[in-house]
DNA sequence: CTAAGTTAGTTGAAACTTTACACTAAGGGG
DNA sequence: CCCCTTAGTGTAAAGTTTCAACTAACTTAG
């Protein structure tokens, strides 16, 4: 916040700062991340995490900047948003010492309406394979994405975070399926339900059921929007 | 990483970026954090987390900048260092839209040799009481410190992180005492030892014992420096 | 030389949790 | 109206944690 010669504070060269997002959704194919194809240099034509500069006169704070990027690319206004970290070095951007403040967002696919525009010539979902995506990514975005995937996968083990990949109303079976797809292993039904009941973060929607050619299932919703609860054991 | 009109990229006003550190150590009084008293405006005379600008021509990356600040203030070269987050907004610094990249460091008190200099008129350890420090802090450093304390306290529950508050050689009794002081509750000796053995992150130093007027205790060291292991249950 | 005091390190029974799996429930489709 | 499927619950066996007591090894006091 201060340096060794405060009268020189504005003569220090400032790094470039961007806000970049790893926006995750579950599709039929599995976990996918939203990528944007760059229209201009550097890395013109390459895929990258969607992002943008901080608009000093428009963004109140970092999270507002992240929400603006998310809204511009997906049309989604209030998803789960979490800071993953900052990546900064002299080498990561040919234009100079730069800094990427990275957020991850979890959205329900049915809420997204992809948007192009700006300096981006294409926007698309890309399936995640292990800890990466098939396309080579601009800058150090492959490393950033890897960190975001690790964070997401890790939190699945001990939190209610995956609920944000589902639409507002969902059944316990659907929630369990989300956990199982993210973890890559199957879970015991009764243990899963006990854990979810214990942390008390969802509530049944009175009288609403998911109907199919079998016993109907109770629909649930999040108790307080945007809350994540942590278990004290792994799931 | 890119914005809506790339040819304007340099006309966007860049935020101010600093790297600030919450440096923790355990003293006889308990958990303390290192504070620096500001010599110049803004907040001249106020206590703040030690920090500095990124030196674009000197720091290779963010962590190098954090290590430089740590070395300058404490003389410590290779402690445990972890990024806590970025705090950025239009309002947090009167000089304009600014960004604080915050790290927390855990050091063993006996390794530190406090250093003044630069734009700082005093450096001192301040005891942590609950989730704050007695002194009012400059900028939003109280909120940043609160987040760092929460992160530390939380990680004590399920990781081997507290080991970094001890000197290189320590006994299991000393390690348990660190956990107990941070958690504010006592732990069962046999359960504690079982957990530590299970995650296999320390090793006995052959033939070295802590001697006192009682049965001598085996000294241990970290197996690989700077590694933190996570338990899959709370301690 | 020995007894008392202190902390190190181990052991085991009882209480509690988790796991695996089987069971009952409720619908639609043939 | 039987069969199939998925929802939701129950329970015995296996595994973990807790609590507390035990043995070990040293110093100091007498």
List the keywords.
homodimer; 235 residues; alpha+beta; Nucleoside Triphosphate Pyrophosphohydrolase; Arc Repressor Mutant, subunit A; 2 domains; eight-stranded mixed β-sheet; two-stranded antiparallel ribbon; 23% helix; disordered N terminus; DNA-binding
Give the gist of this structure.
The structure is a homodimer of 235-residue chains. By secondary structure, chain A is an alpha+beta fold.
What is the topology?
The structure is a homodimer of 235-residue chains.
Chain A: E1 16-27, E2 30-38, E3 47-48, E4 51-53, H1 62-74, E5 80-89, E6 98-106, E7 120-129, E8 132-133, H2 141-158, H3 172-183, H4 189-199, E9 202-212, E10 214-222
Parallel strand pairs in A: 1-6
Antiparallel strand pairs in A: 1-2, 1-4, 2-3, 2-7, 5-6, 7-8, 9-10
Chain A binds a DNA duplex (30 and 30 nucleotides) through residues 171-173, 188-191, 193-194, 211-218, 233.
């Amino acid at each position: 916040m201060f340096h060794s010669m405060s009268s020189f504070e504005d003569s220090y060269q400032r790094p470039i700062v961007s806000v970049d997002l790893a926006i995750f959704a579950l599709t039929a194919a599995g976990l996918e991340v939203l990528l944007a194809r760059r229209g201009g240099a550097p890395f013109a034509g390459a895929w990258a995490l969607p992002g943008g500069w901080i608009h000093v006169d428009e963004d109140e704070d970092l999270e507002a900047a992240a929400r603006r990027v998310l809204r511009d690319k997906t049309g989604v206004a209030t998803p789960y948003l979490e800071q993953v970290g900052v990546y900064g070095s002299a080498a990561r951007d040919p234009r100079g010492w730069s800094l990427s403040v990275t957020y991850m967002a979890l959205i329900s696919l049915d809420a997204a309406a992809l948007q192009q525009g700006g300096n981006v010539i294409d926007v698309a979902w890309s399936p995640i394979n292990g800890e990466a995506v098939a396309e080579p990514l601009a800058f150090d975005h492959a490393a950033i994405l890897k960190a975001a995937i690790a964070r997401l996968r890790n939190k699945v083990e001990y939190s209610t975070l995956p609920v944000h990949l589902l639409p507002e109303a969902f059944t316990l079976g659907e929630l369990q399926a989300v956990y199982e797809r993210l973890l890559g292993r199957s879970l015991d039904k009764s243990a899963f339900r006990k854990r979810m009941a214990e942390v008390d973060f969802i509530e049944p929607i009175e009288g609403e059921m998911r109907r199919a050619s079998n016993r109907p299932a109770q629909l649930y919703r999040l108790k307080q929007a945007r809350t994540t609860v942590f278990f004290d054991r792994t799931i």
